[in-house]
Amino acid sequence: MPVAGRVADLVGKQRVLVASAAILLVGSMVCALSSTLAPMLVGRALQGLAMGFIPVGISLIREITPPDLAATATAAMSATLGVGGAIGLPLSAWIVQAGNWHALFWVATALAAVILVATWFAVPHVRDAQPGRLDLVGVLGLAIGLVSLLVGISKATVWGWGDVRTLGAIAAGVVVLLLWGAYELRQADPLVDLRTTAQRPVLMTNIAAVAIGFGMMAQSIVVPQLLQLPEATGYGLGQSILAAGLWMAPAGLMMMLFAPVSSRLIGNLGAKLTLMIGATVLGTGYLVAFFLMDAPWQLLVASCVSSAGVGIGYAAMPTLILDNAPAREAASAVGLNALMRSLGTTLAAAIMGTLLTSRTMSLGGFEIPTKGAFQLCFVAGAVAAFVGVAIASTIPRRGDSKTLDPAPAVVGAAD
Question: Does one domain contain both 78 and 211?
Fold first, then answer.
């Protein structure tokens, strides 16, 4: 996502949107044609590359919409993540039950083709390219550091948090990222301008993104499992994969419904308070789930409350970034913020997995999480959200901090 953002700043955002849609098309087709693991991994990696579409699209919105509609448009674009998930959950479940997983990726291929055509013909071709170069060493360093760090985190549930492989991968990732940061600071044209990123409004927004991303992902992991566990457990709700998807679908739609609410809050209260409100609502949803988890409709209510908070908060974050980053770095700055949210979701996957396996019971020869394990997950999600509120409270109001001018060339910087 940061690379797509940087390339968008250099060559133009509409071009990168088209390229991302084309990569999604190819990746989906590779997955659809796969019958073994290796090509499936290639296809999924290509689909992951296409995720740069979202932050680039958010940054482009500021350039193609009237100023009075910019906040609403940004909120709507941010909310599409939830709407896509809301539609995708039951649709993918139905496709797999009616056919097979190959059909699922053929549907994704067709959707990618529609996106590609629509992006090519419907998205304005804005002349927004900026002079500069792509820092290929920075791209490689960021990739190595992130992969090592995230592999260590995501495999911690399997390897164990104290395993030498887990600690080694995480430590190696941290070291590489520190070296990458030192290198980036010496570049006149870096992949990520860390001086801009270090400004308090941008820095604290990105840190809050980790906590809120954690809170968003936690429910996506925990609630479907609780819905599908057999009723013989005493707390499982015995829903099919399709039924579980349908119970989860309204939560995603709540994100879109709250997009105009977020826009109104941003206009009246500012993006900082809006982010705090969104994170508070998100945490409240987890508290509701802690006490109401005995019926599918109860989890539906809790998920809708949490998703309303995500819808409010996700619109505020890019607004804060765009308000405090130079226009020439808009896409890369939003891309980095999206990356921080993804880091939060990865942390959530690992920690939720650890919590769910920390308290288990035997049923039919299988070890399954206890009710207390699920409640512990809801507590962790609430804590993450409220930590996000605390972090967001430290973001200066607009005008309290200055956006730094472009950094001058330093000794050793590239020409």
Answer: yes
DSSP 342-389: HHHHHHHHHHHHHHHHHSEEEETTEEEE-HHHHHHHHHHHHHHHHHHH
Q: Give the range of the structural domain holding residue 174, as residue numbers without chain letter.
A: 136-186
**Alpha helices (H) in 34-65, listed in sequence order:** 37-49, 53-64
Strand partners, 362: 367
Strand-strand pairing, 366-369 and 360-363: antiparallel
Mean pLDDT (the chain) is 85
- Distance (Å, rounded) from C-alpha 102 to C-alpha 52? 25
pLDDT tens-digit map of 43-79: 999 999 998 898 888 888 878 888 777 777 877 777 7
Encode pLDDT of 28-46 as tens digits.
Answer: 999 999 999 999 999 999 9
Point out which residues pair with 360 in neighbouring strands: 369
Number of domains in the chain: 2
Task: Look at residue 54 and give its three-state secondary structure.
Answer: helix
Return d(Cα 270, Cα 142) in angstroms, integer.
32
